[in-house]
From TrEMBL:
SUPFAM superfamilies attached to this UniProt entry: P-loop containing nucleoside triphosphate hydrolases
Protein name as catalogued: UPF0042 nucleotide-binding protein
NCBIfam families given in the database record: PRK05416.1
Domain RapZ-like N-terminal intervals: 4-151
Keywords: ATP-binding, GTP-binding, Nucleotide-binding
Domain RapZ C-terminal: 160-279
One protein family per Pfam: PapZ_C
Coiled-coil annotated residue ranges, if any: none
Binding site for GTP: D55, I56, R57, S58
């Protein structure tokens, strides 16, 4: 029986790197295959290993992909879907660095077009067998992850944790599963030399964690997350949003979230990313 992987995901998330990794592993790779040809290809192809990259470049035909995948399922054609994702901010920076145009065009700002793409690609993300976040991993690490999943066949969980910081004065995130309030911590905002900085800088982070209550709080949140994740995985939940808020979303919440992220990032059983929603406000 042939082995087919559909490589998809957000533009700029690393699909080209992924295809090259599959090619190195002996897969026959086809990039930007027209949706209408998928069924015909699976009927005539004798490839033992096949990797197809299908994404937003399919345009309006992408709407037909869900039905096409259902057809393959009914024919009992075996395939896996690998969805590559990354933070919006990371994707925006990658487009700026490479100066590439987004496949959906240049009529809108990059942030707006990424939001539109994410909406159009959502059905594939929900169908995905594997979701890999590439926000904080290098190309070689992505290649290693693909080898682990598709060559070494290591167990892989799709749990994806987002640590989201926010400012209460800008509103509580509606998509948060858990919300933690760190406004009880001493505020760097009132320290003149720290006020213009953010929790991403070591001076602010050092100040926040110079207090015992910060360290205790961080320990307990980390313990709770590590306790909950296996239970969510067991219940087939694949996303967990942990929101951490302070007054403005720039100092205490950011410093706390960065520390929690560093502690949890040692676990390769789940994807994890961090978003600072209000840090620039």
């Amino acid at each position: 029986m042939s082995e087919c992987v559909i490589v998809t995901g957000m533009s700029g998330a690393g699909k080209t790197t992924a295809l090259r990794a599959f090619e190195d592993e002996g897969y026959n790779c086809i990039d930007n295959l027209p949706v209408a040809l998928i069924e015909k290809l699976t009927e005539i192809a004798s490839f033992s290993k096949l990797a197809l990259c299908i994404d937003i470049r399919s345009g309006d035909a992408l709407d037909e992909l869900e039905e096409m995948l259902d057809i393959l399922k009914r024919r009992e054609y075996s395939y896996k879907i690998l969805f590559l994702d990354a933070d919006d901010e990371i994707l925006i920076n990658r487009f700026k660095e490479t100066r590439r145009a987004h496949p959906l065009g240049e009529e809108m700002r990059v942030g707006e077009v990424i939001a539109l793409e994410r909406k159009k690609m959502d059905f594939l993300r929900k169908k995905a067998d594997y979701i890999v976040d590439t926000s904080r991993i290098k190309a070689k690490d992505l290649r290693s992850k693909i080898e682990e999943i598709f060559v070494q066949h290591k167990e892989f969980d799709n749990m994806f944790i987002t640590i989201l910081t926010f400012g209460y004065k800008h509103g509580i995130p509606q998509d948060a599963d858990y919300v933690f309030d760190v406004r009880f911590l001493p505020n760097p905002f009132y320290i003149p030399e720290l006020k213009p900085r953010s929790g991403l800088e070591k001076e602010v982070r050092g100040y926040v964690f110079s207090f015992e209550e910060s360290q205790i709080f961080c320990d307990k949140v980390e313990e709770m997350i590590r306790y909950l994740v296996p239970m969510f995985i067991r219940e087939d939940k694949n996303q967990l949003v942990i929101a951490i808020g302070c007054t403005g979303g720039r100092h205490r919440s950011v410093a706390m979230a960065e520390e929690i992220f560093d502690r949890l990032d040692d676990n390769r059983e789940y994807g994890i990313n961090i978003i600072h929603r209000d840090i620039s406000r």
